[in-house]
């Protein structure tokens, strides 16, 4: 368990699948991630079983400290020990949980895990330009914009850029020292 001020991260359990499944039915959340289809419960169960066996990723649910409610999930993926880097993805499951700082806090907990536990040098992500809340949360957590794949996604009759963001171990160390 990785504990923050108002949240904690823990491994995904079977009883978490329902929350993940419901979030995969939300059209706004699918659009934010550029996902074109929803997933069945069985597909999600099968995927998380595979994820659990993949040594190059760690999946967590995001829980509120006050009541243990699962409010989202995140993953550190594509772990490349040779190059000391990994990818990152996050999703909150409930519209009532957005704009409260939970995404930023959960992202910081994932950074702590990546840089302090896994001892990696780089954490990177992709976010679409229409996901303004996500971009702001990543920037608050210290990610830097590194590049743009222009008009990389065509969805809902519009093009969106794919923004590449990253954070380095030295940047994480600077942020955590100044707290």
Descriptive terms for the model:
single chain; 179 residues; alpha+beta; Aminopeptidase; eight-stranded mixed beta sheet
Itemize the secondary structure elements and their pairings:
Elements: E1 2-3, E2 7-11, H1 17-23, H2 27-32, H3 41-53, E3 58-64, E4 70-80, E5 85-92, H4 102-117, E6 122-128, H5 132-140, E7 144-155, E8 158-168, H6 169-177
For the secondary structure, the number of strands is: 8
Q: In the CATH hierarchy, what is the architecture at level 2?
A: 3-Layer(aba) Sandwich
Could you state the CATH homologous superfamily?
Gcn5-related N-acetyltransferase (GNAT)
Tell me the strand order in the biggest sheet: 1-2-3-4-5-6-8-7
Instruction: Briefly note the CATH topology name.
Output: Aminopeptidase
Instruction: Report the top-level CATH class.
Output: Alpha Beta
What value does the Rg take, in angstroms? Answer: 16 Å
User: Low-confidence parts, pLDDT < 50 over ≥5 residues?
Assistant: none
Topology as a string of helices (H) and strands (E): EEHHHEEEHEHEEH
Walk me through the structure.
There is one protein chain. The model has no long low-confidence stretch (mean pLDDT 92). Strand 7 (144-155) and strand 8 (158-168) form a beta hairpin. It contains 6 helices and 8 strands; from the N terminus they run ββαααβββαβαββα. By secondary structure, it is α+β, with helices and mostly antiparallel strands. The chain has one domain (2-177): Aminopeptidase (3-Layer(aba) Sandwich). The protein has helices at residues 17-23, 27-32, 41-53, 102-117, 132-140, 169-177, and strands spanning 2-3, 7-11, 58-64, 70-80, 85-92, 122-128, 144-155, 158-168. It has an 8-stranded mixed beta sheet, with helices on both faces.
């Amino acid at each position: 368990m990785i504990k923050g001020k108002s949240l904690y991260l823990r491994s995904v359990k079977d009883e978490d699948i329902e929350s993940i499944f419901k979030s995969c039915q939300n059209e706004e959340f699918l659009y934010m991630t550029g996902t074109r289809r929803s997933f069945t419960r069985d597909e999600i169960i099968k995927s998380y079983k595979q994820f659990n066996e993949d040594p190059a990723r760690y999946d967590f649910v995001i829980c509120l400290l006050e009541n243990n409610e699962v409010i989202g999930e995140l993953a550190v993926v594509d772990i490349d020990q040779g190059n000391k880097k990994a990818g990152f993805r996050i999703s909150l499951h409930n519209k009532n949980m957005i704009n409260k700082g939970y995404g930023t806090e959960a992202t910081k907990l994932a950074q702590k895990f990546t840089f302090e536990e896994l001892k990696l040098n780089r954490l990177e992500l992709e976010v679409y330009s229409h996901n303004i809340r996500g971009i702001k949360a990543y920037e608050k957590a210290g990610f830097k914009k590194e590049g743009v794949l222009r008009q990389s996604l065509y969805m809902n009759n519009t093009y969106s850029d794919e923004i590449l963001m990253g954070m380095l171990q030295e940047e994480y160390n600077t942020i955590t020292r100044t707290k």
